[in-house]
Design goal:
Strand content: 15-25%
Structural class: alpha/beta
Radius of gyration: 18 Å
Number of strands: 10
CATH class of one domain: Alpha Beta
Shape: globular
CATH topology of one domain: Metallo-beta-lactamase, Chain A
Mean pLDDT: 93
Strand order of the largest sheet: 1-2-3-4-5
Helix content: 25-40%
Largest sheet: 5 strands, mixed
Order of helices and strands: EEEHEHHEEEEEHEHHH
């Protein structure tokens, strides 16, 4: 893939030939450096993937950065606020529709779902349904760059949580699907919703899959030690994780317990 550049440190400005990241100023333990807003296109027309939170300064920066290029659409990887909160505001700023799997986040007549192909400036963007982190999670394959935009399904650092509107069984299937796609499509980069670009898609996905299996084994072991509640399990399994992240860890534990109880 020509044009791949992975800067050290902040992912602002990370890019492939046809996709550029503009980092939202919302860093936190959950969002890493902030939300990655991806501008994808060739020539005068672009789409914006995940405008980020409803932050006027960020949305204005994205609009001004385009310098006269036309936004033909706004695509959402999923509906969580740190990705979608600014979508309607930004749509009004650039006069573009918002496309999402969840109808509650759409603005315009068209939705977005697995198998759809969005075209912009001669480029194709293929939509992959990847539920799990949330029920409405999507990934976007950019064949011209052999790059997959992964939203929160795969992060640039660490691992994602299973939110209350997601599910672990679906997430594991989505990871397996992305792993197979990365191999068959010869993917060269993952462009995540948070954190830096990943230049080894297969390695990253293998790591994610192995981590999930390891966590399940750890939860089985914690249960065998007598832990019953999500908090008790978190204290054992996530003992080395910053306590500020324990509430998020409890969400993932709930999802993992539900998964194990259904086996």
């Amino acid at each position: 893939m020509s044009g791949l550049h992975i800067p050290i440190g902040t992912p602002d400005g990370s890019r492939t030939e046809h996709a550029e990241n503009l980092l939202a100023p919302n860093p936190s333990a959950m969002t890493l450096d902030g939300t990655n807003t991806w501008v994808v296109g060739a020539g005068e027309d672009v789409v914006v993937v995940d405008p980020g939170p409803d932050d006027k300064a960020h949305l204005t920066h994205v609009r001004d950065h385009l310098a006269g290029r036309r936004v033909t659409g706004i695509l959402l990887s999923h509906g969580h606020f740190d990705h979608s909160g600014g979508a309607r505001t930004f749509a009004g700023m650039v006069d573009a529709p918002v496309r999402a799997l969840d109808p509650r986040h759409r603005l315009g007549d068209e939705g977005l779902g697995d198998g759809d192909v969005v075209t912009v400036g001669g480029l194709e963007i293929h939509v992959f349904g990847t539920p799990g982190h949330s029920f409405d999670s999507l990934c976007f394959w950019l064949p011209a760059d052999r790059a997959m935009l992964t939203g929160d399904t795969v992060l640039g650092r660490g691992t994602t949580i299973i939110a209350r509107d997601g599910g672990l069984a679906e997430y594991l299937r989505s990871l397996d699907r992305l792993r197979a796609a990365a191999e068959s499509l010869e993917a060269q980069a993952l462009l995540p919703g948070h954190g830096p670009v990943l230049a080894d898609p297969i390695g990253a996905l293998d790591g994610y899959i192995a981590h999930r299996r390891e966590r399940l084994d750890q939860i089985r072991a914690a249960r065998a030690q007598g832990a019953r509640t999500p908090r008790q399990i978190v204290k054992i399994v996530y003992a080395d994780v910053d306590r500020s992240l324990w509430p998020a860890a409890e969400m993932s534990v709930l999802a993992q317990l539900d998964y194990l109880d259904r086996l």
